[in-house]
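Progress note, sequence design subtask.
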């Protein structure tokens, strides 16, 4: 793994509305596919998965997560329309909580989205829709046709209209009813909480149920970093009514994600550094400065220093990369050898300490025993003084040197953890404001000889 890898543009993963399918997003994809990889998915009970009876929002999220994992996507943005947006919100929460199958999710687009709270829908409308598709073929087609026409402002072109009607007709009747009776009524507000992914919220200016007012009122409490856009002259079926405008707004959102948060208040160098730090960790990382065994020991040490919850950052792999590139903090204790050499010697010593005390290497002993050994190394009150450690192995470190090294590894781990964009997001810190590439204008320039001037 290299922390200077430039990520490719994210893959766009599309989820459709109630009664839609992968076909819903076909016209938007045509605007994007020359520059962005696209993955359109059918939700259970719809399109190519119409044999399914559908299910809860959580069950639909499980299905999407499995498909994303199967596709092997490492860097992606989730785009959800109406029903698909509610599924997207739950997936985003799981991703921010560290679900391995959702690693790499870097942004959201919510299009006329169903909110985490129960969807605003009158009881009469719900009952009417629950009674559809129980008659003959002609009456079912008339109901599907009416459903599509009621959700757009201007009639769709013939191909898009016929495609949408066909999608509604092939949907599982049970999935249709499950969403109306269950999914649309689920209250996931507490579960979704507040998301920190950069989010674009699109609404049709003429969408009566889930238009601008509903999006602002029902989505805002759950999105820490959202931008709202209204597409005038459109209703609820934005991917079919205004595919060019939807695609253009998605492209702008991807550009903003690539630039990073508060890009205008950061120097290019800072923005690039944050982007590099956000590079997804390689689960098959092969060490560059350490051995595989030493990396395992370092991972156990780092887990004791920073027990991570939610998004997991492979700090040990990042330390190894840092050692290989000689990109540390620029100083070391005089009593220690150069950084990479000190790490190798210290990890060897720690492993031998574990074997002498517990009969196994440090990485595999109980975590409570790991903590006790590290207290010895640190010279903590009540622990055996590190100077009284057993004689170090060949190429190892003695007690005082181990204590110095443990200060180093704690500083390295905490620095890498606290400067990672995921940690900054969890702390609700947009980004370091370093003034941008232009000179700051809020203060007068320093001139030698000015009264009261002083070097700081």
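Output:
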């Amino acid at each position: 793994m290299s922390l200077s890898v430039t990520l490719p543009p994210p893959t766009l993963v599309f989820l459709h509305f109630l009664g839609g399918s992968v076909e819903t997003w076909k016209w938007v994809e045509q605007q994007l596919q020359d520059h962005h990889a696209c993955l359109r998915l059918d939700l259970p009970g719809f399109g190519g998965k119409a044999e399914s009876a559908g299910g809860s929002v959580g069950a639909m999220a499980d299905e999407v997560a499995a498909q994303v994992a199967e596709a092997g996507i490492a860097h992606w943005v989730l785009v959800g329309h109406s029903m698909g947006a509610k599924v997207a919100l739950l997936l985003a929460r799981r991703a921010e909580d560290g679900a391995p199958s959702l690693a790499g999710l870097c942004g959201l687009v919510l299009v006329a989205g169903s909110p985490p709270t129960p969807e605003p829908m009158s009881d009469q409308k719900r009952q009417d829709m629950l009674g559809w598709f129980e008659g003959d073929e002609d009456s079912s087609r008339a109901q599907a046709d009416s459903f599509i026409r009621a959700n757009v402002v201007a009639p769709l072109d013939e191909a898009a209209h016929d495609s949408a009607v066909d999608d509604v007709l092939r949907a599982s009747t049970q999935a249709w009813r499950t969403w109306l009776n269950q999914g649309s009524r689920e209250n996931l507000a507490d579960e979704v909480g507040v998301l920190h992914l950069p989010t674009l919220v699109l609404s049709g200016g003429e969408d009566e149920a889930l238009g601008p007012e509903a999006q602002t009122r029902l989505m805002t409490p759950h999105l820490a970093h959202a931008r709202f856009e209204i597409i005038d002259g459109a209703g609820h079926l934005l991917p079919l009514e205004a595919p060019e405008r939807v695609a253009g707004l998605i492209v702008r959102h991807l550009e903003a994600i690539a630039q990073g948060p508060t890009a205008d208040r950061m120097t290019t160098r800072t923005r690039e550094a944050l982007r590099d730090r956000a590079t997804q960790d390689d689960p098959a990382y092969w060490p560059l400065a350490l051995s595989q065994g030493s990396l395992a020991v370092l991972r156990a040490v780092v887990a004791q220093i920073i027990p991570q919850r939610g998004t997991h950052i492979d700090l040990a792999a990042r330390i190894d990369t840092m050692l290989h590139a000689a990109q540390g903090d620029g100083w070391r204790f005089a009593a220690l050898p150069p950084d990479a050499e000190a790490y190798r010697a210290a990890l060897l010593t720690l492993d031998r300490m574990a074997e002498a005390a517990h009969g196994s290497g440090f990485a595999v002993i109980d975590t409570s025993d790991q903590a006790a050994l590290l207290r010895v190394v640190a010279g903590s009150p009540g622990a055996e003084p590190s100077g009284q450690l057993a004689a170090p192995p060949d190429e190892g470190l003695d007690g005082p040197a181990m204590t110095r090294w443990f200060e180093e590894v704690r500083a390295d781990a905490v620095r890498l953890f606290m400067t990672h964009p995921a940690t900054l997001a969890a702390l609700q810190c947009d980004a370091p404001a370093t003034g941008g590439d232009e000179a700051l204008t809020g203060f007068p320039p320093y001139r030698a000889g000015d009264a009261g001037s002083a070097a700081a």
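Residues 1-6, 439-456 have pLDDT under 50 and may be disordered. Work on this subtask will continue into the next period as scheduled.
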